[in-house]
Amino acid sequence: MEEFREIIDLAVFERALTLAAPAIFVLGLSGGLVWGARRRRLAAGAAMGALAGLVGPLIWGLWAFYGLLVGRLGLDSVKALLINLGVFVAVGVGAGLAWGAAWRRWGGVSD
User: Fold this and answer.
1) Which of 29, 52, 69, 104 has the smallest CB count inside 10 Å?
2) pTM of the shown model
């Protein structure tokens, strides 16, 4: 019988995430600059693009936090689960509020 194994291992995933985080930031910033240039609002586009691009480093940071917490408390720890839940919900709500405030300030005005 054939043995099952992962498609990629943890080291490959972490390397890809480490490379993707800055690339996502650059793509977000570039997209924001294009968006801003089309609307003749380059500063607003740069701000919105930078905020959108922060998703990459944020994902990398959350993954690192998750790894440290699970490494310390264990994968089957209810305490780790609740801490992760609280942190991820807080970060999600905070990111949503930040995006909404930025959109109202810089992105909501159409031509």
Assistant:
1) 104
2) 0.81
